[in-house]
Amino acid sequence: MPRPGPIEYKDASPEVRRVYDDIKTSRNVPDVNNFWKYLANDPKTLARTWESIKEIMAEGALPPLVKELIYIAVSATNGCEYCIASHSAAAAKAGMTPEMFAELVAVVGMANETNRLVAAYRVPVDPQFG
Fold first, then answer.
1. Is 5 left (phi over 0), alpha (psi -120 to 50) or beta?
2. Model pTM greater than 0.70?
3. pLDDT tens digits, residue range 63-75?
């Protein structure tokens, strides 16, 4: 089976165009990212994912920059080049400095290393960490 390609606005169904329009308006951008264009192959997944992203990444108990930094950390751990690039751009727009990025990457690397050591040694959780 061939891999589905991106759905451009001019070729999109009305249902997909509604989501694209909301993304463009919400983000004040002239076009949607490739991520959305590929998700448009399944309009229900496109709409559901966009609604979730809008809700979760909005200002809340955590500011948008912190959420973007978390997104970068998880994306780096999962090896998602696209998400690292996309959310690094969003984090920079929200105020991330090169120094913040460097520290974030260092923490991600350290956490991955110590997580694997703990898992390999099967270290039990200390009672005070409950």
1. beta
2. yes
3. 999 999 999 999 9
